[in-house]
């Protein structure tokens, strides 16, 4: 078997999986920018919104950072994978970028 992966035939956001007589390109984990294999522990570098922790790229909880990310009045922060969302608190709705009471 020839190791086609030695020639790095895959794209930047993929890793190469050598198979008998062939190879396949597999997508890197969403937490990675470039990778050497499957999973968040095989990242070359972590994607934006992720931090290397115990050799793995883990999601940063922007809602628990010391500096608030959702600064408008009556707004709550919702953590998402690799990012966050600012939404109006319960009982409020977004009206032209401001949270007003419903």
Automatic annotation (TrEMBL):
Q: Report which superkingdom the organism of origin falls in.
A: Eukaryota
Instruction: Answer yes or no on keyword Signal.
Output: yes
UniProt keyword annotations, A-Z: Disulfide bond, EGF-like domain, Repeat, Signal
GO molecular function list: calcium ion binding
Q: Which Pfam families match?
A: EGF_CA
Instruction: Please report the stretch or stretches of sequence annotated as the EGF-like domain.
Output: 59-98
Question: Could you say which protein family the record assigns here?
Answer: Belongs to the CRELD family.
| Protein name as annotated | CRE2A protein
Q: Which organism is it from?
A: Nyctiprogne leucopyga
